[in-house]
Amino acid sequence: MDFVEFEGKTYEEAIKKATTSLNAEEKDLEIEVKEVDTKGILGLLGSKKIRILARVRQTKDIAEEIAKDIKSVIETDSPEEYGMEFIQGFGRILGLTINAKTAHANGRLIFYLQCDNGDILIGKEGEVLEALQFILRLAIAKRYKQGLRILIDINGYREKRKKALTIMAKRLADRVKRIGRPLKTDPLNPYERRVIHTLFKHNKNIKTKSEGEGHTKKVIISLNRGAHVNGNRR
Amino acid sequence: MLRDLIEFIAKALVDNPDQVKVAEIEGEKTSVIELNVAKDDLGKVIGKQGRTARAMRTILSAASTKAKKRAVLEIIE
User: Fold this and answer.
1) In this complex, which of A93, A139, A215 lies closest to B5 when CB atoms are compared?
2) Of A167, A162, A161, A175, which Cα lies nearest the Cα of A221?
3) Less packed terminus of chain A by CB within 10 Å, N or C?
4) Would strands B30-36 and B21-26 be described as parallel, antiparallel, or unpaired?
5) Last residue of one domain, picked from the residues A106, A139, A155
6) pTM above 0.90, yes or no
7) Is A224 helix (H, G, I), strand (E, B) or coil?
8) Where among A56, A74, A90 does a domain terminate?
9) Looking at the structure, do residues A23 and A96 belong to the same domain, yes or no?
């Protein structure tokens, strides 16, 4: 929409004309003062006329506001909101200040938490984090009668862990190639195993397989027969 | 705090939150947290192969570290 010119004896008067004519509130208008023909202070003594240019604001502020409004209507009492509430409630009980935001990726609902005392919530090898995630998943499943894949990360722990696992797995794979027999990782939880399986998914030389029973299993890294015969790395 | 924590978690998991009762028996170094739920909800707080109970215990011991105490969770049948 183009700017429209308005004129008034005072700034307020010009604005009023603009809001009436454009059928919008002042806060939703983009306003440029074009010309002030005055001897005194704006809107006070001796001002003769003021010309402004106005148009309804179309920046993303409004788009964002609308998007937010729509979101809050659609997502009232959503797993996201409930999860946030759960996490905040949990933090309050423990006397921890937790900042949380949600995101969606790969079909998972992810809760990113920032917490000064995050180590408590991570625990040894992430066991507290896993427990918390398990409980939250159950609570969401209970309330919304549907299973939802969720992930909680605290202070970037999962990213760091992923990097460490990647380095470890690559080292193991190199050794496997050198010595020609399979090697096992430490016991890993499902998410951690997935990191390793995904890492070698497109690697023709390396095969990965989980071994064991229960929640944590070892991953066996071995050479893929055939590819290994002439050490051929395609 | 530990009592509230278990109550908070249990209430989120059961069908009958109003029947969740949690008592804390404080010892000098160790607290025993007794969790009572409706009979039909027992499975919910224990979980398959005790996984839910284990998760609650893990969280409880993390929280009790913060409170500089040891805590044990007992689920009352």
Assistant:
1) A93
2) A175
3) C
4) antiparallel
5) A155
6) no
7) coil
8) A56
9) no
Cα separation, B61 vs B71, in Å, equals 6
Contact of A50 with A18, CB cutoff 8 Å? no
A85 touches chain B (CB under 8 A): no
What's the distance, CA A3 to chain centroid? 37
Q: State the amino acid at position A20 in one-letter form.
A: T
Q: Domain span at residue A96?
A: 59-155
Interface touch A139/B13, C-beta < 8 Å:
yes
Average pLDDT per block of 10 residues along chain A, 234 residues long = 83 87 83 70 60 76 56 64 90 89 90 89 90 94 87 92 91 90 89 90 88 86 68 46
Q: For position A122, which CATH number holds?
A: 3.30.300.20
d(CA A199, CA B26): 49
Predicted complex ipTM = 0.94
Angle at A131 between CA A127 and CA A132, to 5 degrees: 115
Q: Which residue of A has its CA nearest to B12?
A: A139
Nearest to A15 by CA among A29, A34, A35: A29
Count: domains in chain A: 3
Token pair for B25: 């028996």
Does one domain contain both A46 and A66? no
Taking the CA atoms of A170, A177, A191 and B60 in sequence, report the sign of the dihedral they define: negative
